[in-house]
Amino acid sequence: MKMSADFDNIFREFHPKIMHYVSRLAGNHDAEDITQEVFEKVSQNLEGFRGESQLSTWLYRIATNTALDRIKSRQFSRRDKETVLEERSNVEDKNLWTGQKKRPVDHELIKKEMSDCVKEFVHMLPADYRSVILLSELEGFKNREIADILHISLDAVKIRLHRARARLKELLDQGCDFYHDEQSILACDRKPPIIKIKKAD
Hints:
The structure is a single chain. The protein has helices at 2-26, 28-45, 55-74, 78-89, 107-122, 127-138, 143-150, 154-175; strands at residues 176-180, 186-190. By secondary structure, it is mainly alpha-helical. The protein has a two-stranded antiparallel ribbon. A hairpin with a 5-residue loop joins β1 (176-180) and β2 (186-190). The chain folds into 2 domains: 1-75, Rna Polymerase Sigma Factor, Chain: A (Orthogonal Bundle); 84-193, Arc Repressor Mutant, subunit A, CATH 1.10.10.10.
């Protein structure tokens, strides 16, 4: 009975967090199914959890492994990934009548737009880089905790995080123009896609 009560408490506390993390790691489409699978595993293995690591570390390890397994099983082609990203980026940001870009109305909107832009580019990272960036930047885990979650050494976490941040910076530099608006708030405009002109035969 106690184990059931503990699981209920764990589910209530961590379900929204795991759902949010998984959606960023594996995409919104599969997030609900993956999260359900994660908590099924938690329920099945909770009795064997001895507290050798923090509960949150154990949960995120299960979530990460489950999500990465799903990503590998999909075997998305590059075209599939680009289609998903294109659909996510086609959010209407122009005035329907004038065709001009809408001006941000306040600080929070600018921050949200930039945040959404950054998250799209995080999703373009390889799964190993994406997981370490999300655990560090989104979930706030320390490097030692990330090492426990991913079952890799602390040095490997530092190297992977450094490479992931460098790759993300490259993607952002290629895809966004960053600037400070009139109120000195950092904002970004997406660069137009490079259109390759097919040579005539």
